[in-house]
Specification:
- The protein has no helices and eleven strands.
- By secondary structure, it is mainly β.
- Strands 2, 4, 5, 6, 9, 10 and 11 form a seven-stranded mixed sheet that branches. A four-stranded antiparallel sheet has the order 1-3-8-7, with no helix packed on it.
- β5 (46-51) and β6 form a beta hairpin.
- It is globular, with a radius of gyration of 14 Å.
């Protein structure tokens, strides 16, 4: 079993930055892909950014150029650097990993609120 724990959320003013972290623990044989998702009240959960085992990344259009996903394989951790935040980025952010040959694991979520 793999557990994911997110951290780094909070309240930030428009134009500000936050860095989210998600650390995996437990029996980890391999982690293939990592992803960050978000869900705003009344909306469906959406994919924000993904990074595969080779470091290839992809982003939803609305965050391109502002968010950066990265991973530290030695620490079994993924990061999401979020810059130039705006109120539309307000949501609960979840990390997800595909590990141990196809098993999907989710974190518990961390709240990001962008408001003046």
């Amino acid at each position: 079993q793999v557990q994911l724990v997110e951290s780094g959320g909070g309240l930030v003013q428009p134009g500000g930055s936050l860095r989210l972290s998600c650390a995996a623990s437990g029996i980890i044989l391999s982690i293939n892909n990592w992803g960050w998702y978000r869900q705003a009240p009344g909306k469906q959960r959406e994919l924000v950014a993904i990074i595969d085992n080779g470091g290839i990344t992809n982003y939803v259009h609305s965050v391109k150029g502002r968010f950066t996903i990265s991973r530290d394989n030695a620490k079994n951790t993924v990061y999401l650097q979020m810059n130039d935040l705006n109120p539309e980025d307000t949501a609960t952010y979840y990390c997800k990993c595909v590990a141990n040959w196809g098993h999907v694991y989710w974190g518990q979520g961390t709240q990001v609120t962008v408001s003046s």
